[in-house]
Structure prediction request, 370 residues.
Amino acid sequence: MAVRMGSKGEPAPSRTLVPVQELHDAPLAPLTTFRLGGPADRLITATTDAEVIAAVREADDSGTPLLLIGGGSNLVIGDKGFAGTALVVATEGFSLDGTRLELAAGEVWTDAVARVVEAGLGGIECLAGIPGSAGATPIQNVGAYGQEVASTVTEVVAYDRVARETVTLPNADCAFSYRHSRFKADPGRYVVLRVRFALEDADGMSAPVRYAETARTLGVGVGERVPLAAAREAVLKLRAGKGMVLDPEDHDTWSAGSFFTNPILTDEAFAAFRARVEARLGAGVVPPAYPAGDGYTKTSAAWLIDRAGFTKGYGTGPARISTKHTLALTNRGGATTEDLLALAREVVAGVRDAFGITLVNEPVTVGVSL
Prediction:
């Protein structure tokens, strides 16, 4: 059950805070990694939990639509923009007590991972390089290279817009699953303020390496441990090679990372999928398959996209598939959101026609849909 939480015990801010900032008819594209989207009627930047809550309450009391923005790495905003208040959560707070970590929602996630690794603690080292803010990580149950935050999150402190109070949700109440959570299932209810983690002190060694590609890069077997810094550096290298580490000079990183989630199929649906693969590509072609719980199998969205004919660099307009990874849709400069969505719809239709699977977008869409 959620329990109330007061402000006592919150870590002191790491910088001098300024009063809440407010702009009107404010561009939102620069606040997203896609660099797409029209303006917001009103843009507020909040630097404390109290400012965040006050802005949310004001919007709720007046019936004004509210858009929360963290790192902007998981947003697709329509070209017409947002008719309401956009709230940038720019809170700061990094508190490490033994193996217990607390992050303010506005903390830059990849910077926090670097600090944790430097402190010699394991559990999130393979989540290095993921763009965005700490507050977004439990919403998406962010994961990569064999780790996901559900394994280390102990509590999420959030403002409950229905109960109109600050609550603390333990891990068991967060309903974590693959790229999903209670917060994502009910996006209008909770505003994440702080996230707490339980890390591991293994004398500077990583958690057991679970992802085969990471293990190969490190030259170890799956299940082995390596120095934390080596694990982090290997993941950063792998991500950079796929255009998944932000670089303003590299248009392959003008994206939301993986645009589609990996499909999870029932045993019956997976058998039908395999039959379509054999009919289309030949009996010797075996699609990727990973256990996803009793009666379910996960397959690869990137594999589906590539085998449906959408290879790296696909497209002729300003929105194209990344030249480094088929799972990323990118803005090559000068694109509009409609350009991006047209490409996404083409990919979805092509994969569905080829394999009978409908891909689901991972980024949140604002004012638009596939």
Observations:
- Residues 1-19 have pLDDT under 50 and may be disordered.
- The longest strand covers residues 190-198.
- Residues 141 and 149 are 6 Å apart (CA to CA).
